[in-house]
Design a protein that fits this description.
28% of the residues lie in helices and 25% in strands. The termini are far apart. It has helices at residues 12-35, 42-55, 127-145, 153-167, and strands spanning 59-60, 77-81, 84-86, 100-109, 112-121, 170-171, 177-179, 186-190, 207-210, 213-215, 221-223, 230-232, 238-240, 243-248, 251-254. It has a single domain (3-254), classed as Alpha-Beta Complex (Creatine Amidinohydrolase). By secondary structure, the protein is α+β, with helices and mostly antiparallel strands. It has a five-stranded antiparallel beta sheet with strand order 8-7-9-14-15. Bound molecules: 2-amino-4-trifluoromethylsulfanyl-butyric acid (MF3) and cobalt (II) ion. Cobalt (II) ion is lined by residues 115, 178, 209, 211, 242.
Length: 259
């Protein structure tokens, strides 16, 4: 199904604010990345995220998010370990050596959202796991490279999907990227696979969150009884990376880039 919904175009002034939101998101994500180690809990990382967001005069986008009658999301971060794909709720469980964890962070600044995520290894992981992380991140940057004026949304999707396909990974179909602005989720939906040359024509001023998700096994997912956590049905390891980017006349600008 391909629905051609209107995509908002941000003005120069709006982009300036979104750049500020994105910078704060990157700063806080860098702090979270440094805090990941065996023994740390999701709740501790969530507390850190909330404090660091507040210090920067911003708000945690995800707190209280409640689409379609779901229980309001409690965290500033999503914290998804191993076979959990996305939207895991930070809890008391401590990370262990050999885990992988996806940390997804939303930062709202002056009414505009930035949305970005990374997956990292806790200590040493097997080569197959390290490769899953590298390939999933590489697919994100390949997608970003296609985010150019005159290209099509399908060019982004196809570039991301090609990496997953080449590696023989499960490419998750139920979730994908999205437009970002005053709302965290704006049109269009961005699939993590597809055909080049189809879908929306990309224009300067569009802002998108690209978020590839791949698994070592089968791509089927299930939602857990907390109504949020999404895990792989077959229990296989999964990875997720996300950046918020603006499409400009000079090429893609990564608003949430760390460093
Ligand atoms: N990057 C995630 C997404 O776009 C953020 C979800 S936040 C939550 O779906 F609050 F819904 F968990
Ligand atoms: Co997102």
């Amino acid at each position: 199904m391909s629905v051609m919904t209107a995509v908002t175009i941000k003005s120069k002034d709006e982009l300036a604010i979104m750049r500020e939101a994105g910078r704060r998101n990157a700063e806080v994500r860098a702090i979270l990345r440094d805090a990941v180690r065996p023994g740390v809990t999701g709740l501790e990382l969530d507390r850190l995220a909330k404090d660091e967001i507040a210090k920067r005069g911003a708000e945690p986008t995800f707190v209280g998010y409640a689409p379609g009658g779901r229980p309001p999301y409690p965290g500033a971060i999503c914290y998804s370990v191993n076979d959990e794909l996305v939207h895991g709720i930070p809890g008391k469980r401590a990370l262990q050596e050999g885990d992988i964890v996806s940390i997804d962070l939303g930062v709202t600044y002056r009414g505009y959202v930035s949305d970005a995520a990374f997956t990292c290894a806790v200590g040493d992981v097997p080569e197959e796991t390290a490769e899953l992380l590298r390939v999933t991140e590489a697919s994100l940057w390949a997608g970003i490279d296609q985010a150019r004026v005159g290209n099509y949304l399908g060019d982004i999707s196809a570039a991301i999907g090609a990496w997953g396909e080449r590696a023989g990974y499960g490419i998750i179909a139920e979730y994908g990227g999205h437009g970002v602005g005053r709302e965290m989720h704006e049109p269009p939906h961005v699939l993590n696979f597809g055909r080049p040359g189809v879908g929306h024509r990309l224009k300067a001023g569009m802002v998108l969150a690209l978020e590839p998700m791949f698994a070592l096994g089968n791509p089927d997912t299930e939602e857990m009884s907390d109504h949020w956590t999404v895990r792989m049905r077959d229990g296989s390891l999964s990875a997720h990376f996300e950046e918020t980017i603006a499409i400009t006349e000079d090429g893609p600008e990564v608003l949430t880039r760390i460093g």
